[in-house]
Fold this sequence. Notes:
Layout: H1 4-19, H2 23-36, H3 41-53, H4 57-70, H5 75-87, H6 91-104, H7 109-121, H8 125-138, H9 143-155, H10 159-172, H11 177-190, H12 193-206, H13 212-228, H14 232-245, H15 250-262, H16 266-279, H17 284-296, H18 300-313, H19 318-330, H20 334-347, H21 352-364, H22 368-381, H23 386-399, H24 403-416, H25 421-433, H26 437-450, H27 455-467, H28 471-484, H29 489-498
Amino acid sequence: MSTSSDEDSHNRRAQELWAQGRHEDAIRAWEHAYSLDPDNVETLLDLAWALGREGRCIEALPLAERAIELAPDEWRAHHVLGQTHYVDGRHEDAIVAYSRAQEIGGNDPMLNSDLGDALYSAGRFRQAAGAYEDVISAQPADAYAHLWRGWALHQLGDHEQGDAEFEKALELAPDWPEALYAVGQMCCAAGDFTRAAQLLRDALEHYPEEDEEGRAAASCELGNAHRGLAELGDAARLYQQALSLDPTHVTTRFNLGLIYADSGDAEKAIAEFDIVIQFDPQDMDALVERGSAHLSLGRHDDAIEDYEAALAIGPDLPDAYAGLGMTYYAMGLYELSAERYARAAELAPDDPWSRHNLALALDAAGRPAEADAAFEEAFESGADDAELCAALARALTAQGRNVEAGIEAAERACMLAPGSADAHDALAMALYSAGQHEAAAEQAREAVRLDPEAAEYRYDLGLVQEALGDIAAAREGFGKAVELAPDFEEAREALRRLEGEP
């Protein structure tokens, strides 16, 4: 006949084995204790908890339920039942069990933390944030609660307070990879790519080798940081590293596709977007990006098919309308292009690029008054975007109706980004078109100084120097442009002109 002492001995031995990481041995010891007394609530709960932790929920569930039958007012029994449901993915059932444990009188921080996890997994983010806050009230130094309250607040749109919680978690646990990852991701979103890269490298160092999911996510986010730093080779390597850990990580595949697209390898980009769409045929972003890759290869029908497929899923997707506008423009169908760009501008009224592109399409369609109005609207809404101002300056210079507005836009671009070679070159060409050749030469020389390897800027400087009558300097500029870009036909033609060749 068994004794309580035998049972206690097996329970203690099981706890020791579990602490040593010998989980199967510990479970066997608890099972032996259970065989000695099947109605011992403590043994039932310990065994149910251990089986649940190992994912053996079918075995754990009846044990937890039996414990509740024997001790319905024991809050820990409801807690263990909730843990079993949570591991089994039954989050709403877990919430019910945890809530019952709280009603009975369980105010243990671990219970509140588990309730927060279940609420978060069920998408009940406001309640989850409250549960984690309860943990923090009892244990202010609980890094886990700070971190997950941060995630819950982000889901609610409170990014400022969410970021503060991430920073607090990192302060409390500076070597915890989850906190390093969260703050690294936060820095990526804020554009602080240098700090993000350092934090995410630290996260990768601290993730255990066996945590392939965590390492894959950190590698992907580190790739995002390097992409933000314009280090595309490093970004691609990190995305590939993430995929070697988790080939199904669709966000990584999507980002790798973007890298290939940015690098000019549209075929590889399409291959990655194909896989993303196989995983999720409803992924509108992947359809739009694949359409853009097709467009870059001149596959207009394929591009239109992808953009239309994206709109079938999300009828109010401005990027898809903008992609159609770009495709029809490339096909010379300017009225259709203007129609699609107008819809994109309507759906994204704060995006000045849509109005810039609409203006180009309207101008090409022979509707100059409407084009000028769209150019003006684009400048008004995008006056703080140096790249847009430079693009507007070039467009206004090219259409030739309002060169003064082009000069104004280019000057604005130079003021916003004095180190931008493109802005200075845009101003040089606007001044050149206005006949202000001395001032144009000054800006063209500055563009070349800022980016001496850009063939276009050398060519533009040559044009200005030719207008000034400095033929030797112009010949040198055109020659350098051809040296930098042997297929630059306009520069070759300019050289032949100066040298009197037919």
